[in-house]
Amino acid sequence: MQFTMNFSKKLIFWYLENKRSMPWRKTTDPYCIWLSEIMLQQTRVEQGLPYYLSFTEAFPTVFDLAKASEEKVLKLWQGLGYYSRARNLHTTAKYVANELDGVFPNNYKELLKLKGVGDYTASAIASICFQEAVPVVDGNVYRVLSRYFGIDTPINSTAGVKEFKELAITLMDHEDPANYNQAIMEFGALQCKPKNPYCIVCPLNESCVALQKQTVTELPKKLKKLKVKNRYFNYLVLVVNGETTLVRQRTGKGIWQNLYEFPLIETTKEVALETLEKDKLFKSLKNATITLYNGETKIHKLSHQHLHTRFYIVELKELPLWSKEYVSCDFNKLREYPVPILLGKFIESFFKNDAFLLHLL
Q1: Residue 223: inside a domain, yes or no?
Q2: Residues 322-337: pLDDT tens digits?
Q3: 132 is a catalytic site residue
Q4: Both 75 and 142 in a single domain?
Q5: Which residues are bridge partners to 306 per DSSP?
């Protein structure tokens, strides 16, 4: 018991001395904590902070978020990745606003029932907002515990998840669960970092098993990742009379659900334009001038997919027959549509390329 207390108290003391100033640390409002935790899943704080500020400005309350259109939510989320988080966020906001009168559940068990809220997020909200003694276990926590206790069980295995959760429960500070959970997460982010951790000045270095055994760089252990799948995307960026283009909303359960994109031809390998022209999308293009925009194939890396992408600018005088399946929009309104970051970067590049735009006009 004394050992557990020393571990938790040292972490909390370190946290109070070293924590970063974050807007969500200045409140215990469940809406703000929930929003920040969903955004910071698989996202660095530096990347997530501007999105948090944008969302809280656009949607000050859960009612504001619930009333927003999905398109607006996805547009504000653009670039943050893992878009299912945004869709779940919107669904939960509508549920809390309409079914719970805007009041979030006040305990771990009920929070878990919210769409998009898993063990980690429920634990964070319950401890920070309601002082419930439930431990968070995220990537930072796995790293701290595996190194400090010298545990080499893979953290992404069933056995590992169970072992680390049980350990986290025994270490939980029941007197100050909010600060303890934030302390161990912050400690993993700033002190016990994945690479080049500050072991020399670490408050736990005298009893860290990994440091004693010189296995710090080897922990935590992970099972091998799934094989990366290569996909080949060929986008047709139509420019009709120099001012109009076509986009379509992606459906289904694959990547980028409900985001917009240009007409797409996906192939099994990288192919030349002559091969693409045999596709049905090309058949009704009359007197089109086709130019490859990016000379070098753009490789966009997702968690288990690498997208080898080319953008073809297709200049023509009239819309093709299949245009009814797409949304026709002026180029100057293209930025209003929520798109994957890959397409967002292309659009910005396209608009900045003055010489190319002059050529179109």
Answers
A1: no
A2: 888 899 998 888 899 9
A3: no
A4: yes
A5: 230, 301
